[in-house]
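Hi Prof. W.,

I finally got the alanine transaminase prediction working! I wasn't sure whether to trim anything, so I left the full sequence exactly as given:
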Amino acid sequence: MASDYSSTLNTVSPKVLNCVYAIRGEIVTHAQILQQELKENPGSHPFNEILYCNIGNPHSLGQKPITFFREVLALCDHPLILDRSETKALFSADSIVRASQILDQIPGRATGSYSHSQGIKGLRDTIASGIEARDGFPADPNDIFLTDGASPAVHMMMQLLIGSENDGILCPIPQYPLYSASITLHGGTHVPYYLDEETGWALEISELENQLKAARSRGVNIRALVVINPGNPTGWVLAEANQREIVEFCRKEGLVLLADEVYQENVYAPDKQFHSFKKISCSMEFGEKDISLVSFHSASKGYYGECGKRGGYMEFTGFSPEIREQMYKVASVNLCSNISGQILTSLIMSPPKVGDESYESFSVEKEAILSSLARRAKILEDAFNSMEGVTCKKAEGALYSFPRINLPGKAIKAAEEAKTAPDAFYARRLLDATGIVVVPGSGFGQRLGTWHFRCTILPQEEKIPAIVSRLTQFHKQFMDEFRG
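And this is what came out:
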């Protein structure tokens, strides 16, 4: 007799069943089917390739890795070639020196070894120095936990903060669905606060106050506030004054501030600048006893886009030694993060400097990627705003556009008949007609009665005109079909 586990979902945890992560949801599953059909039967669809604009995955869409980073990683993974004469001809001198220095910090000089559960001490020293250089305030390597990207760090914090469904986390709407998914998986309550689309997705303190008060009146114990800056999916970059208000709000209400800062290198608006919440808090002269702050960073975004290397860190400040011990225990359960990701994270926080052999080529590569992303963001913004019934706020940062679509009543009715959300209906039709994969706004959360989708700005610049052409042509046909 077959096990119950082979035939029913009744044996699966309700936390898993209730968890939703639209970025790799039904639309993407369908796209993968179409991709296989194109491979097996070229010409079977009205497009010749699938363009995955659903996820911030730069290298999959053609972005090249940063040469210096890859040189150091290669040498660390194969140290036997460090002393070969031909290595000096193939690798820059500073990458050879950096790899040798890093290997000296790794147990057994082997990237296949376990490390300390918080990450290799020497690499945490480097990252702390990078944080100090960025912010102008001291950073302690003992506050840093190296993780397999930012996502595991978020899960670790949810494990630490959530004890029952009475524990709530304030999260932005729209939000990166990692947060709502992880809150659900760990059995907590997602308490949304709404960003103001009319003012370009601004974060209003009055909205935080209202949602906090309402949640507490329902008996929810709000433990933390999530802020994503620059915003995902909105692209909004917080002003320094607004950040000060947020820090003061968390201090006053006794909330842990969870600062998702993985897009800190991706700022395109000339009048905006990234400031870490650590820097803001320190500039307000708040110390360890004033506010608990966790800052997340990742090697997956920025100009590096190394999603598959799974590197990242969280800086864990303002917690008692007893709580720090519990976080270390959580980290220890996972043994350690992968060593290549640890190395890469140290490199992005300490790239080549003036005078290093790689500095000029590194600077050229970095500037080329960031300036191209800025151009792509503007082209897509203009294209969306030229489409009937579509409005798109300026992407000041991050890697996405989040246009709002005013769908005709007939389209909404057709979606209801298909038992799907109207924006998911639109996204599915877009995929079937063009091969372009976007994520419905309902996967991120949105105000009732509004519909959006998230589209990355990551397809290579030479492909953007063709994508815009496909999008605008599809949208016109869609509106003509359902208008009236």
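The longest strand covers residues 221-228. Does that look reasonable to you?

Thanks,
D.
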